[in-house]
Amino acid sequence: MKSLKIPKFGVIFKRFVYALLIIIPILLLGFWGYTEFASYSPNQDTLSAAYADRNVKIEEKVSYFEITPNFVREDAKAIIFYPGGLVRPQSYIAKMVKISETAQTKVFLIKSPFNLGFFDIGAAGRIIDQNALNKPIVAGHSLGGVAACRFLKDNPDKVAGIYLYGSYCDQSIADFKGTVLSVIGQNDKVLSRESYDKAKSNLPAQTNFREIPDLNHSSFGDYGLQKGDGDSSLNMDEIVKNMI
User: Fold this and answer.
1) What is the pLDDT of residue 31?
2) End-to-end CA distance of the chain
3) Exposure pattern of 198-218 as b/e (b: 16+ CB <10 Å)?
4) In the chain, which residues have pLDDT < 70?
5) Which pLDDT score, from 0 to 100, does residue 39 have?
6) Under a CB-based contact definition with an 8 Å cutoff, are residues 239 and 219 in contact?
């Protein structure tokens, strides 16, 4: 009877590594495919109108879009925006163009890996360094707002404030002294009100809380109605005036 040969540990380890080299790319490809399929896309008419706007310049970089109005106020703070989870960044270009024009400032719209800001929370830091920005505002919609808040928590001296849209801070920034704006819609059926109310204590005393009638969750971008959301009849100008 032949004796059973047990592979040496080195052989087993090599087989394990080879298996991982095969499995991990497959899993990543599958995850990428899922996020591509699941991500909301921009309204093409609204996006085309934004690109046709002669009052701004839209430049696409490797990891973000840079939106610059024809006139930039010297004292204006640039805005760095984290998109909502599983929403393509192009879905926010129209709103960011309008914000850029209204606030007379540059807006940087982040492209997140897999359309999930949690995979690149440090993106704002690179934009600040690459563009030599002086304490910009970080902002975000939905899960993007949570990502923006986590960046602020770790880098409070790099930013002047934060704008949260249909979002909240899941970690405390109660000691932050800068500008904090929290905007939600009364018709928002996506945001967990229980989580939102519980997280209010994570924000500092000077936070400007706004709850806008007839505003839903999806209207902070331009990608149609998000599944389960309420309705909204507000136009672009009415929404944007509450976002800054």
Assistant:
1) 46
2) 81
3) ebeebbeeebeeeebeebbbb
4) 1-38
5) 82
6) yes
